[in-house]
Design brief:
Layout (H helix, E strand, L loop, with lengths): L8 H13 L6 H10 L6 H11 L2 E4 L5 E4 L11 H4 L2 E5 L2 E5 L5 H13 L6 E6 L3 E6 L5 H13 L2
Antiparallel strand pairs: 1-2, 3-4, 4-6, 5-6
Length: 157
């Protein structure tokens, strides 16, 4: 078993989303076990609530197995940006955003979606790790402006 890691609810949901996107979650019981394998101990009721809040639904994967999937729109997840952005640092045309463990992929997806809808005009793309998102600005020296825009984005409700 992995070392127990305290996670915020937003970071835990980011991990749940990551597990779902890896096509690994077949049941709530399995989700509880997968979270435990990642050091996050939850009850089945908490797992159920997380799935509901993420809008997860069951469908057949590439084979004949039923797995959880997430809706294609990340719009409901934008509300969690204020919980996911811990710090933003700029350099050149880049901004480095720190998140809680497991939150980077969810945040990167949220930022990319917001950029595609014109809500983050300085952003052209993201690369996510586990707790860090590298965000690329449109201009060669736009990192500072992008960092400022990301800080403002994290404050929106």
């Amino acid at each position: 078993m992995a070392k127990k890691v305290p996670l915020s609810p937003a970071a835990r949901k980011a991990l749940v989303a990551q597990l779902i996107n890896q096509d690994k979650v077949h049941s709530q019981g399995q989700l509880v076990q997968l979270l435990a394998d990642n050091g996050v101990v939850v009850t089945q009721a908490t797992a159920s609530r997380d799935l509901e809040e993420l809008g997860a639904f069951r469908q057949k994967n590439g084979g004949a197995e039923m797995t959880y999937s997430l809706p294609s729109s990340t719009q409901p997840l934008v509300r969690g940006a204020e919980d996911l952005i811990l710090s933003v640092t700029a350099s050149g045309n880049l901004a480095v955003v720190r998140t809680p463990p497991g939150g980077a992929q969810l945040l990167a997806s949220t930022l990319d979606h917001a950029a595609s809808q014109g809500k983050l005009k300085a952003l052209i793309g993201t690369i996510a790790g586990d707790d860090t998102v590298l965000v690329v600005a449109r201009t060669a020296n736009g990192g500072a402006g992008l960092a400022s825009e990301l800080r403002q984005f994290s404050l929106r409700k």
